[in-house]
From TrEMBL:
Protein name as annotated: Alkyl transferase
Keywords: Plastid, Transferase
Alphabetized GO MF terms: ditrans,polycis-polyprenyl diphosphate synthase [(2E,6E)-farnesyl diphosphate specific] activity
A GO biological-process term: polyprenol biosynthetic process
Gene source species: Paulinella chromatophora
Enzyme category, top tier: transferase
InterPro entries xrefs: UPP_synth-like, UPP_synth-like_CS, UPP_synth-like_sf
Length: 254
């Protein structure tokens, strides 16, 4: 169950022994890989893996909320995922719709603030409506920020930001000399969100897959062989322990 605690003391009591509350990541990003393989290993159709993946995502969101993580960003559908079989893409779109319809009230109760990052205007209309309503209904919630990346691509996000700034310069509203990192960041889907401290990728693959290319510049990366639908409390604790052992220098020296 998701719980939002007004006192840090209460939240502290929920944190597993061995984790240091001072060194918790503020923002975790996840690449939820291995749904298809999870299903195939059980002789099930791939789509069953995506269904089980939703449960793993709910578990992860709930634990992150309980343990005081401020933001969770999940890669649900990339700009490249349209190349999957037509039936699988269709299933994923209706799965997103069903999950939003089914879970919105619980998310509201748990004070989750949900946002969707990506080019949303090409998504099925019903899904766009549900996204707009979920975004609006949870906008003022002060609990964990839950960012769901749908039709998201890191390169596309950067190209779009460049286009916006170039156009502003072309019409004389922006001096190119003044373009800095803050200017650029303000045009990304993640505008206003802190960069992830920790990226978790499941299924043992060691790549970024066009995810948050700008924002992950200094994130710590934890890769686990576990397939996403199996990702659970123990796996999250291991990822957090791994994170807490890292020395973050951001290019400097200790
Ligand atoms: C990658 O596994 C997973 C996806 C492309 C879909 C992830 C989506 C969910 C878990 C649903 C989330 C729902 C909401 C509403 C946020 P894969 O299919 O690439 O697995 P494989 O590498 O084993 O083939």
């Amino acid at each position: 169950m998701l719980a939002i605690y007004s006192f840090d003391k209460e939240r502290l009591s929920l944190l597993p022994a061995g984790l240091d509350h001072i060194r918790m990541p503020s923002h975790i990003a996840v690449i939820m890989d291995g749904n298809g393989r999870w299903a195939q290993r059980r002789g099930l159709p791939r789509i069953m893996g995506h269904r089980a993946g939703v449960e793993a995502l709910k578990r992860t969101l709930s634990l992150c909320s309980d343990w005081g993580v401020s933001a969770l960003t999940a890669y649900a559908f990339s700009t490249e995922n349209w190349n999957r079989p037509y039936e699988e893409v269709g299933f994923l779109m209706s799965l997103f719709e069903r999950v939003l319809e089914r879970e919105l009230e619980a998310l509201e109760r748990a004070k989750v603030c949900i946002r969707f990052l990506g080019d949303l205007e090409v998504l099925p209309l019903r899904l766009q409506e549900l996204i707009a309503s979920a975004t609006e209904r949870t906008a003022d919630n002060k609990g964990i920020r839950f960012n769901v990346c749908i039709n998201y691509g890191g390169r596309r996000e950067l190209v779009k930001a460049a286009q916006i700034l170039a156009e502003r310069a072309r019409i004389g509203k922006l001096d190119p000399e003044t373009i800095d990192e803050a200017c650029f960041e303000a045009e990304l889907h993640t505008a206003g969100e802190s960069d992830p401290d920790l990226l978790i990728r499941t299924s043992g693959e060691m790549r970024l897959s066009n995810f948050l290319l700008w924002q992950l510049a200094y994130s710590e990366i934890h890769i686990t062989d576990m397939l996403w639908p199996d990702f659970n409390r123990e796996a999250l604790v291991l990822a957090l322990e791994d994170f807490q052992r890292r020395q973050r220098r951001f290019g400097g020296v200790e």
